[in-house]
Design a protein that fits this description.
Layout (H helix, E strand, L loop, with lengths): L6 E9 L5 H9 L17 E7 L2 E7 L9 H12 L6 E7 L8 H8 L5 E6 L16 H15 L4 E4 L8 H11 L17 H16 L9 E9 L4 E9 L2 H8 L4 H18 L3 E9 L7 H6 L6
Parallel strand pairs: 1-3, 1-4, 4-5, 5-6, 8-9
Antiparallel strand pairs: 2-3, 7-8
Helix pairs in contact: 6-8
């Protein structure tokens, strides 16, 4: 009787901002590991989500959207994305049906040179709608065909799969293909491990997600969250967190008139945290000013923005 050998590998997800990488990651892992909003630059770190079966371990890695950095925080975000090209066994390059294929060609040229399997995922195909014209050129299928042909010229060695991460269309087929491409290897992590990140990381990410959802303009991008206290007992979790902003005016906006805005963030974050951890949460959130934290390497290191 021939035994099936164990497979394991790193499957890294890269692409430009707002193409659906985090939504795809959560669908593949089956858990809400990455925050996903309609705003670009939602993901700032490289986040691992681990899928385990008796015969296999897939270590997925979500990364920030590729961009041309304007300050040190964005330099660190780009470094996370570029590091994902170095240690992947399979690379998932995510685009969508409206993105210009030639956006960020510097990064794409690095993908072109890769010798590992690359799966090019055209996301959001559910948003393709036919034109009013009765001609074949106006059909959704012909639009998708044109997108596929364009990408095939840019990444001729990649396998191209149309998907809708939001609706989970094509995700099961993608997962099956990944399993086929994985190398034979023992597991890299314990089989009961879901991610490489500690609990405090997910607390700060969930709070930051609420800020992304409830504040406009530059506020979400000027914010970082640090968990200063995480104390868990059998029945409850007590959390103290600090929202850092760059200016006093931003602090005022975060808190809102008579504290209403901050109370809303705290309430919604607590609900999500209770769902995530499965326990009642006592959450206190404070707001502090840390001028130019996005441009200070020392501060970025303290917040965990170090791809090495």
């Amino acid at each position: 009787m021939v035994e099936n050998k164990h497979k394991a590998g790193f499957v890294n997800i890269v692409g430009n901002p707002n193409v659906g990488k985090s939504t795809l990651m959560n669908q593949l892992v089956g858990e809400r590991i990455s925050i996903a909003t309609f705003k670009a630059q939602t993901t700032r770190h490289r986040i691992m989500g681990i899928v385990n079966t008796p015969e296999m371990q897939i270590v997925f890695s979500d990364t920030p959207g590729v961009l041309k950095p304007n300050y040190k925080l964005q330099e660190s975000m780009l470094a996370f994305s570029e590091s994902a090209l170095q240690d992947a066994d399979v690379l998932l390059y995510v685009t969508d049906v409206v993105e210009n294929p030639e956006k960020n060609m510097d990064f794409l040229e690095k993908v072109q040179q890769m010798t590992i399997p690359v799966l090019l995922l055209i996301n959001k195909i559910d948003s393709l709608t036919p034109d009013s014209s009765p001609s074949r050129e106006g059909s959704s299928q012909s639009k998708l065909t044109a997108i596929v042909e364009k990408w095939h010229t840019l990444l001729p060695n990649a396998e191209i799969l149309p998907i809708s991460a939001k609706n989970k269309f094509g995700v099961d087929l993608l997962l099956k293909r990944i399993q086929e491409l994985l190398p034979e290897s023992p597991a890299f992590f314990d089989k009961d491990q879901l991610t490489d990140k500690p609990a405090r990381f997910f607390v700060s990410e969930i709070i930051r997600e609420k800020i992304l959802l409830y504040y406009d303009k530059e506020i979400p991008y000027a914010v970082e969250v640090r968990v200063e206290r995480f104390k868990e007992d059998d029945k409850h979790i007590h959390i103290n967190a600090v929202i850092y902003v760059e200016r006093d005016s931003q602090k005022g906006i975060i808190i809102g008139h008579q504290g209403v805005a901050l109370k809303k963030v705290s309430t919604e974050a607590r609900k999500s945290l209770e769902k995530f951890f499965g326990k009642p949460i006592y959450l206190e959130i404070f707001v502090k000013v840390d001028k130019d934290w996005r441009s200070s390497q020392r501060e970025l290191d303290a917040f965990g923005y170090n791809p090495e």
